[in-house]
Structures are given as C-alpha cells and as structure tokens.
Amino acid sequence: GQNIDQPTEMTATEGAIVQINCTYQTSGFNGLFWYQQHAGEAPTFLSYNVLDGLEEKGRFSSFLSRSKGYSYLLLKELQMKDSASYLCAVREPSGTYKYIFGTGTRLKVLA
Amino acid sequence: DSGVTQTPKHLITATGQRVTLRCSPRSGDLSVYWYQQSLDQGLQFLIQYYNGEERAKGNILERFSAQQFPDLHSELNLSSLELGDSALYFCASSVGSGSNYEQYFGPGTRLTVT
Which of A15, A62, B64, B88 could lock A47 by a disulfide, CB 3.0 to 4.6 Å apart? Predict the structure, then answer.
C-alpha cells in the first residue's frame, strides 16, 4: 500500500533545532519533497531529495535514506515565523506518476 | 506572490451543481497541477498537465475533470457536487514535468458546498 507517516504536532523553542521525521511506504520512488504551509496559505516548496544523503539550504536541511524509506527535515535557529505545518510528499516513478502527501506536522515555535 | 493566479477566491454552491475553477500558471511554466485540501484528508494530488497533455493522475474522482488550454491556463471542473467536496483547491505550476522542478502554488479557491 501507499503510506506516509509524520508526527502530528511538535513544539520547540525559538533558537533551537528541530527534526521532523517522515517515513514512507510507496509502490516506487521518484523523489521526496518537503513543503511548508502556514495556516490559511498555500504550500511553499522547501526541498527535494532523490538520492540518499543530506541537502542543505540555509537554516533548513533535508535527509533521505531510500533503503529505510525515511527522511527528515531539520530546522536550525528556529524563528517564530517557522510556526507552520510541514508536509512530506513522495512521487511514484511509474504508472500514474502521482504525488502522495503525508498529513503534515504542525510545528509550534515558542518564545 | 508565487505568480500563479486562481479564480475565484471563494465559491459557495449547492449540492448537485457544477463549478469551474480556473488557474493561470507562472509565465514560462508548462506544467500545471491540481490539489484538493480538506481538513480530514490533508493535501491530495488530483492531476497534472504538461503543455496541454495529461501527465500524471492521482485520486481524482470521475465527477471531476480538468484540461489545460493552448495558452497554458487550466480549468478544473467539478460536477454533481457533494458536501464532501467542500475543500480548498490549489493549483501549482512548474517549468517542466519532472519531479526535480519546483512547484509554485497559487492562493487557492475555497469551495463550500451547502
């Protein structure tokens, strides 16, 4: 079956580091994506991983292990504006090429 | 502002009706994607078009259809509407059709079916 699991909610303190995990079970794999979505707004692209390893982009990094069906998004030097939902998504490589999204992790950053 | 425009912003209609949602991609983008986001189901991928051709298909209901026109704008048609179709519908666009192209989301159309 197809399934993507993320924690529902996380809380962290301003200035800290937080890691949001995502595990997936899909029929195939053609890339993993992380999106940020503030309440009432559209998702915005954060990262894309297709090979194993770490991709770093400023305060945000994303890691992928295809053999383990596992990814994480690392947010450093947390700011209040990072309070948002973080969506993990996987694209299937063949057949329908569809995107499968997790239900998202709601992150609250506290002062 | 992502450069993707969607109209209308809000739509309220009754069960059994038909509506059309419109999306204009960013200048230069050839791919358009449609998503549905409801409170209980999260973000669901519906369909992708690339330069007028259907490229990828998600769990789009048979009551829903979409197309991309020669000027690259896209329309999502929802018919025989049910209460459960109430959701936020997002359109996104990207330059290419592959996974490595970043998708830019429009502000969404909020559909309420009463």
Answer: A62
